[in-house]
From TrEMBL:
Entry-linked CDD domains: CYP105-like
Keywords associated with the record: Heme, Iron, Metal-binding, Monooxygenase, Oxidoreductase
PANTHER family in alphabetical order: P450, PUTATIVE (EUROFUNG)-RELATED
Protein name per its UniProtKB record: Cytochrome P450 55A2
One Pfam family of this chain: p450
Key word Heme present: yes
GO MF term set: heme binding; iron ion binding; monooxygenase activity; oxidoreductase activity, acting on paired donors, with incorporation or reduction of molecular oxygen
Region of interest called Disordered, as start-end residue ranges on this chain: 61-91
Source organism (scientific name): Meristemomyces frigidus
Family: Belongs to the cytochrome P450 family.
InterPro entries for the chain: Cyt_P450, Cyt_P450_B, Cyt_P450_sf
Length: 401
């Protein structure tokens, strides 16, 4: 008997996906791995199989179920907290998700594009105003504020609190922060949001938190803790991912100067650029997990009730059968009906997908147009990527222009 390999796999270097994924896709697309706690969930590495897993009603998203694959001791502890819709099965999942879904529909986000563009412009102008006599950290000065301030606006966070919340989010999203510091920042954010829920209960406005209070909390459809946890989820769930995708996008364009030239000549290419970016870099690669509620068979492999499943969207986004020459970044890639899985799949697909796309498109149709001479302030070999077994990202990115 050979013990299953330890998971998560480590990236070989920088943002390059772990080499194990390609081997498994070719030879053993459904296999067991070993997590930190000694458990042995199944790892699914092919695009079609992951889509099956993420739409199979015999599989549960509830993290409190025995056998659900948790990626760390912190994750296991967090699973005991009050669940929100991301950790619920039908019908509870859609019931709670629909309480806030209207704010994130494609149509509503289209109406928010001018506001999103204004946020990008403001954050970029602030960064430029500070000058670059010394290299400037693009993560701190631009990649973090843009998505943070966009979601603050939707939730209804008072402008005077933005600086405080950005500092808390910086601690949470910085890969070099200690676990204790990140946990303290989480607690501070929860306390802050609790106070904001109370304020909106007394004096509601037109923001999403007010809507949640007026339409759900006051009629007792949810309680105060639910309102706080849902607000916390929306505030932080995609924040680190968005910060990383902006930084990764900048480095990727600098690595592909001819494609950067194409984008500068035609800002409308920001849409296919973002599509390819979200395939090439999967900055949220460990969230698509399930546990079997009953025995199932997948590609001839029996997965027993109570066994965990990790559907690797990172591996699926490099599946050769779906994306030819998958390790090549190409914003001109010809695409059909196939979809990358960076935002998940099925009914648990990321609720803020259209917001994320709009933010990234605004960033990359603007950044190099305003700063055509933007370049790294350090050798590429010194870019501070996240720890090799964590979601791919960049913790600090010194740039000059």
């Amino acid at each position: 008997m050979v013990d299953p390999p330890i998971f998560p796999f480590a990236r070989a270097a920088g943002a390059e996906p772990p080499a194990e994924f390609a081997k498994l896709r070719a030879n053993n697309p459904i296999s067991q791995v070993q997590l930190w706690d000694g458990s042995h969930p199944w790892l699914v590495t092919k695009h079609s199989d992951a889509c099956s897993v993420l739409t199979d009603t015999r599989l549960s998203k509830q993290r409190q179920r025995e056998g659900f694959p948790e990626m760390s001791a912190g994750g296991k502890a967090a699973a005991k907290n009050r669940p929100t819709f991301v950790d619920m099965d039908p019908p509870d999942h859609m019931r709670q998700r629909n309480m806030v879904a209207q704010a994130f529909t494609k149509e509503h986000i289209e109406s928010k594009r001018p506001e999103i563009q204004a946020t990008v412009n403001r954050c970029l102008d602030e960064m430029i105003k500070g000058g670059c006599k010394e290299p400037v950290d693009l993560v701190e000065k631009f990649a973090l504020p843009v998505p943070s301030e966009c979601i603050y606006s939707i939730l209804g966070v008072p402008f005077e609190d933005v600086e405080y919340l950005n500092s808390m989010n910086a601690v949470r999203t910085n890969g070099s922060s200690t676990a204790a510091a990140a946990a303290n920042a989480n607690n501070d954010l929860l306390e802050y949001l609790g106070k904001l829920v109370d304020k909106r209960t007394e004096k509601p406005g037109t923001d999403l938190m007010s809507k949640l209070v007026v339409e759900q909390l006051k009629p007792s459809n949810i309680d105060r803790l639910d309102a706080v946890q849902i607000s916390f989820l929306l505030l932080v769930a995609g924040n680190a991912t968005m910060v990383n995708m902006i930084a990764l996008g900048v480095v990727t364009l600098l690595e592909h100067p001819s494609q950067l030239e194409d984008l500068n000549r035609d800002p409308s290419l920001s849409k296919p650029f973002v599509e390819e970016l979200c395939r090439y870099h999967t900055a949220s690669a460990l969230a698509t997990r399930r546990v079997a509620k009953e025995d199932i068979t997948l590609r001839g492999q029996l997965i027993k009730a109570g066994e965990g499943i990790i559907a690797s969207n990172q591996s699926c986004n490099r599946d050769e059968e779906v994306f030819p020459d998958p390790d090549k970044f190409d914003l001109h890639r010809k695409r059909g009906s196939e979809e990358a899985l960076g935002y998940g799949w099925g009914e648990h697909r990321c609720i803020a997908e259209w917001l994320a796309r709009a933010e990234l498109e605004a960033v990359f149709s603007t950044l190099f147009r305003k700063l055509p001479n933007l370049k790294l302030g350090i050798p590429h070999s010194e870019v501070a990527y996240t720890e090799s077994t964590r979601d791919v990202g960049i913790t600090k990115l010194p740039v000059v222009w």
